[in-house]
Design a protein that fits this description.
It is a single chain. The chain is an alpha+beta fold. It folds into 4 domains: 74 residues, Helix Hairpins (Orthogonal Bundle), CATH 1.10.287.110; 67 residues, no CATH class; 104 residues, Sandwich (HSP40/DNAj peptide-binding domain), CATH 2.60.260.20; 108 residues, Urease metallochaperone UreE, N-terminal domain (HSP40/DNAj peptide-binding domain), CATH 2.60.260.20. Helices cover 25% and strands 27% of the residues. It contains 10 helices and 15 strands. It has a 4-stranded mixed sheet. The chain has a 3-stranded mixed sheet with strand order 1-9-8.
């Protein structure tokens, strides 16, 4: 059976995708969930062996090149005399350690959790504190994470003798080959529970909803991820907790847009103010500012308000306001006449093909 097919992933799958696939399958095929299903137990062992190989970069590369048959020459948990020889050549120790083939026993770590946190535009700019709720797994109070009924304790697994792993011996041209894999009876924990805790069904953890206060630093942006170490799910039977990842989403502002550390806005001003100039009140995120529209301001002109943008390590960015001159529509006859008079005073020929704007405006009134 192909290891990638066993884990239901593509050959281009990332280490994180392989880990997620293994955890999902291990939960579904776990002997505790399938006590009377030998096929599920057998597949559980196959999935564990597949993950053991594909999660190790060296063994994965070897498998990609030679396939499952090549693992006999790579998974060297114990090779008898050859192991001793190679071990001495590499400074002593078990050859399985050298090739990373040893299995660790003990409770598995808890799952990492991911949540989404949506912030208002102002909250992202200036920072805030928010309460979030997370559906997670916490330690069982009844058994104190042991998984065993109060007054009892887990017992050493007789199948693996507490090592959390089993070995399969086979012969090859190199001599005696030993393959190790997680113990199917205790799922690699090295312990079995005869009297499971009723509160957690022997897992040492239960589901719960927890609240966390999250401090949002000024200037955070959509797409950023906050990492809270140890705030994920607690592992079974006292396993270390996973991590919590918070994906940030920022609601758009009704006027402002963000460009790095700067804020951008467009401001429409009447043609008369653009021509004559004026100081107007303009609303920033910090409050009102007096904006100086100079006489003769053209559409597309940018006014820079310094230090009113996004906070950064030193200081803040700027607020850039692009002026859009609002040309009047639906002029009355009197208004069109006044503009024609202005054009005449400025020496502008309205009868030429490229200067007939006021004629057209008047004809629509």
């Amino acid at each position: 059976m192909d290891y990638y097919d066993l884990l239901e992933v593509d050959r281009t799958a990332s280490p994180e995708e392989i880990k997620k696939a293994y955890r999902r399958l291990a939960r579904d095929l776990h002997p505790d969930k399938n006590p009377d299903n030998p096929e599920a137990e057998a597949k559980f062992k196959q999935v564990a062996a597949a993950y053991e190989t594909l999660s190790d970069p060296q063994r994965k590369a070897h498998y990609d090149r030679f396939g499952e048959a090549g693992q006999a020459g790579f998974d060297m948990g114990d090779l008898g005399g050859l192991s001793d020889l190679l071990g001495s050549m590499f400074g002593g120790g078990n050859i399985g350690d050298i090739f990373g083939a040893r299995h660790s026993s003990g409770p598995p770590p808890g799952e990492n959790l991911e949540v989404q946190l949506t912030l208002d535009f102002e909250e992202a700019i200036f920072g805030t504190q928010r309460e979030i709720e997370v559906q997670t797994m916490v330690s069982c109070d009844e058994c104190k994470t042991t998984g065993a009924t109060k007054g009892t304790m887990p017992e050493v697994c007789t199948n693996c003798r507490g090592t959390g792993q089993t070995r399969q011996v086979r012969q090859s041209f190199m001599g005696q080959m030993v393959t190790t894999m997680p113990c199917g009876d205790c799922s690699g924990l090295g312990e079995r529970i005869e009297n499971p805790c009723q509160g957690c069904r022997g897992r040492g953890r239960v589901g719960d909803t927890l609240s966390f206060t999250v401090k949002i630093q000024p200037g955070i942006a959509s797409g950023q991820i906050l990492h809270l170490a140890g705030k994920g799910a607690v592992g079974e039977r006292g396993g270390t907790p996973g991590n919590l990842y918070i994906h940030i989403v920022v609601r758009p502002h009704e006027r402002l847009r963000r460009d790095g550390d700067d804020l951008l806005d467009e401001l429409s001003v009447p043609m008369t103010i653009a021509a004559l100039g004026k100081q107007i009140q303009y609303e920033t995120l910090d409050g009102e500012e007096r904006l100086d529209i100079k006489p003769g301001t053209q559409s597309g002109h940018v006014i820079r308000i310094r230090n009113k943008g996004v906070p950064k390590r030193r200081g803040r960015g700027d607020l850039l306001v692009t002026i859009k001159v609002d040309v009047p529509r639906n002029l009355t006859r009197e208004q069109a006449h006044l503009l024609e008079r202005l054009a005449e005073m400025r020496g502008e020929d309205l009868d030429s093909p490229d200067a007939s704007i006021f004629r057209r405006l008047r004809s629509r009134s």
